[in-house]
Amino acid sequence: MSFEEMWAALLPVGRDAGTGGYHRFAWTPPELECRAWFLDEARRRDLAVERDRNGNLFAWWDPDGTRGGAVLTGSHLDSVPGGGAFDGPLGIVSAFAAVDLLRERGVRPARPIGIAAFAEEEGARFGVACLGSRLLTGAISPERARGLRDRDGRAFADVIAEHDLDPALIGPDEDLLGRVSCYVELHVEQGRALAEPVGVASAIVPHGRWRFGFAGEGNHAGTTLLEDRRDPMLPFARMVLAAREAAGRHGTLTTVGRVEVVPNGVNAIPSEVTAWLDGRGPADDAVRRTVAEVHEAARDAAREHGVAVELAEESYSPVVDFDTALRDRVAAALGGAPVLPTGAGHDAGILAARLPTAMLFVRNPTGVSHAPEEHAEPADRLAGVEALTAVLGDLAGG
Ligand code: HGY
Ligand code: MN
Ligand code: MN
Ligand code: MN
Predict the structure, then answer these.
(1) What is the pLDDT of residue 47?
(2) Coiled-coil annotation: which residues (predicted)?
(3) What are the b/e assignments for 277-310, b being 16+ CB within 10 Å?
(4) Among 325, 320, 298, 317, which residue's Cα sits nearest to residue 309?
């Protein structure tokens, strides 16, 4: 199957016909359909397929059966709610297309080439970003992961058990990591910095997620006087505004989402509000100060309204500076390419703690991501495949 044929096959999966946004949450039917597509494409190419103990998928091209020193590429299949078509899948479709090109050109890699589809990269179902690659590398404890719950209250352990994964076995896989020499991820650009079709990543800025829980007192909207209310909506509202104000003060970026209101009626004062804060910025201390100021504002407002507030840090990734030797080698394999940082997190950022890691970005003319307008032109997609082919051919030798 050509790139465009693979792309056409994936495009409708999990896509909302009305908004054009994608809803491919880990272990839900659309994402399972994408997983099946991944396995089909791997088998079509006689690649050895592997699912690790955490549910990450791998397809290996290992003509000499050496198993070791593999060059791994790939990305993720899951999406944010209402996400774009390219964030994740572009890296995987491009990887299969790059293997095809290498074979067409008679390349027999001296090292195995692997294609990964990491599970729950967006954290859209269980809240923690890059859950699959965090488990693989030991960046999250299996105990904590087992207890993570989705928005229906279902535990991660129970969900993966339905897919023949043993929750007792999730966690680092040193054998698998030991078979990999480096990881190169191709991803759609999530911004508008690229003037050329393909760029190379220099770094990922610090970013994290914090869960705010506001507990008040549910009551009747029509019979509870203002002075008798303990309405969690009010400190929540203050938290949202404080997030924007603090970001402005510290040059950071804050976003509030994944809001749950209980019971979320119109004529019932809520008893609880849960809201997640996504915080990112140029430096750790700027992000930390931003979150601290949001927390302080939320606490003050909670006190004023007789509401309890709880803050939990769900995930935090300090700045990732990609391996400079690999970065420069990748740029050289492309005959030179723009080098740029990103404000988006990636599995590559998690794997960078364990392996030399690099990223390629494919130009996005809209600059929009995590929304249906995310885009990459066909010519740029093919430029991305050519770039990945050159990089894999260089790194895997042969
Ligand atoms: O949220 C992110 O930064 C990434 O797109 N997962
Ligand atoms: Mn994303
Ligand atoms: Mn992504
Ligand atoms: Mn009533």
Answers:
(1) 98
(2) none
(3) bbbbbbeeebbbbbbebbbebbbebbeebebebe
(4) 298
User: Structure tokens of 24?
Assistant: 């491919």
Residue 64: pLDDT band with limits 50, 70, 90: confident
| Number of separate domains in the chain | 2
Asked whether residue 161 falls in the same domain as residue 132, the answer is: yes
How far away, in angstroms, is 280 Cα from ligand 2 center?
Answer: 14
Kindly report, residue by residue over 66-80, the tens digit of the pLDDT. 888 999 999 999 999
209 to 149, 187, 363: CA distances (angstroms): 15, 22, 27
Domain that holds residue 21: 3-205+319-395
**Beta-bridge mates of residue 366:** none
Taking only the tens place, the pLDDT of each residue in 78-111 is 999 999 999 999 999 999 999 999 999 999 999 9
Give the integer Cα–Cα distance in Å for 334 and 383: 10
DSSP string of 243-276?
HHHHHHHHT-EEEEEEEEEES--SSEE-SEEEEE
Same domain, 336 and 245: no
Amino acid at 144: R
Residue labelled with tokens 């990922």: 204
Q: Which of 295, 317, 339 finishes a domain?
A: 317
Contacts of 88 (CB under 8 A, 6+ apart): 75, 76, 77, 78, 79, 121, 122, 187
| Ligand nearest to C-alpha 91 | 3
pLDDT digits (tens, 9 = 90+) for 209-241: 999 999 999 999 999 999 999 999 999 999 999
pLDDT above 80 (res 382): yes
> How close is the Cα of 190 to the center of ligand 3, in Å?
9
Confidence at 65, pLDDT banded by 50, 70, 90 = confident
Atom of ligand 1 nearest to the CA of 344: 3
Query: To test the ligand 1 pocket, which listed residue (185, 210, 370) has its Cβ within 8 A of the most ligand atoms?
Result: 370
Mean residue pLDDT of the chain comes to 97
CATH of the domain at 300: 3.30.70.360
Give the atom of ligand 1 at the shortest distance from the alpha carbon of 122: 6
Rounded to the nearest whole angstrom, what is the distance from the C-alpha of residue 109 to the centroid of ligand 1? Answer: 32
